[in-house]
Write a structure and sequence with these properties.
The chain has 6 helices and 16 strands. By secondary structure, the chain is an alpha+beta fold. Strands 1, 3, 4, 6, 11, 13 and 16 form a 7-stranded mixed beta sheet that branches. The protein has a 7-stranded mixed beta sheet with strand order 2-5-12-7-8-10-9.
Length: 299
């Protein structure tokens, strides 16, 4: 359970004063700029090699963020026609450090006992040629972001990721490393599921609180012009998808937001992982190693 200072949510960039670069680190081409669409400050991280340009929290590897919220919200936009990489170091309840990485550079899901690598499928603007191609392809568009890639609210259920893929219990988030090429507005942690597509009044009318869903805090929200709908302007990705009992092989947009009703049954969910025998054997071994051991009888 997050400490009181982390509830109901923690605005990570604000709390750690990223703009001062005292509790965070930057390397390479990292700059703060004003985004016209979002009407606020964003951080641009760009470079030909992801490892050479990045924004990192906390400043050094010996420190820890210590954030216990179950969900990590990343508000970002991959740069068009570019690749990006994000690394998250999390600690299990047993203080085992596990790295969770996702990137549109990765071609397939890979796993070890201490590292999960997920391909990230960048969405294109609805109705565009890239969007139509993604809908007809089972695996979507893996690779560089399309020209009209949108701002995205990515929600990572860290508890479920460790449980589903490694049979571990989530402890806390240690560090975040955002590598080129992307724009990032903010990070947020919480035990609550925020739906950016609903307003505070709509949430009250629909009584979404009883379903564990809340509207996105205003300081974390993307602007929506009057008469427009959030989901027509931006992408929402929750991973793993709500209620998922199977591991998936990539992080990509599904047809449903947390409170949305699907209007497009054609768009497909990410496919359950189809693993080679070698990977299946490795995952099986990981589960054997990490499962609680039965206590043998003294005789």
């Amino acid at each position: 359970v997050p400490a009181a200072w982390q509830r109901p949510y923690l605005n990570v960039f604000k709390h750690f004063r990223v703009e001062e670069w005292k509790r965070s680190a930057r390397e390479g081409d990292v700059a703060a700029l004003t985004d016209a669409r979002l009407k606020g400050t964003v951080y641009r991280i760009r470079g030909s090699v992801p490892a050479s340009s990045y924004l990192q929290l906390p400043r050094t590897g010996t420190q820890s963020l210590g954030l216990a919220g179950r969900y990590l919200y990343l508000l970002f936009r991959p740069m068009p026609r570019k690749h990006f990489v994000v690394h998250l170091d999390v600690a299990t309840e047993e203080n085992q450090v596990v790295r969770i990485s996702f990137s549109n550079l990765f071609k397939e899901f890979k796993s070890t006992a201490t590292w999960l690598q997920f391909p990230f499928v960048c969405g294109a603007a609805e109705g565009s040629a890239a969007d139509r191609a993604a809908r007809t392809s089972r695996r979507g568009l893996v690779g560089a972001a399309p020209a009209d890639v949108r701002w995205t609210c990515l929600v990572l259920d860290l508890h479920s990721i460790l449980s589903l893929y490694l049979n571990r219990r989530y402890g806390h988030l240690k560090s975040v490393k955002l590598c080129s090429n992307l724009l990032v507005k903010n990070l947020c942690t919480s035990d609550l599921v925020f739906d950016p597509g609903v307003t505070f009044s709509e949430a009250q009318q629909a009584d979404l609180a009883c379903r564990g869903v809340a509207p996105m805090p205003r300081e974390m929200a993307f602007p929506v012009p009057k008469g427009e709908k959030w989901h027509d302007l931006y992408d929402y990705i929750r991973f793993p998808s709500e209620g998922s009992k199977l591991p998936y092989d990539s992080i990509q947009k599904s047809c449903l937001g947390p409170a949305a009703v699907s209007e497009d049954p054609v768009q497909q969910l990410p496919q359950p992982v189809t693993l080679t025998k070698a990977v299946r054997d490795r995952l099986s071994l990981i589960h054997q190693i990490t499962s609680p051991k039965a206590v043998s009888a003294p005789w």
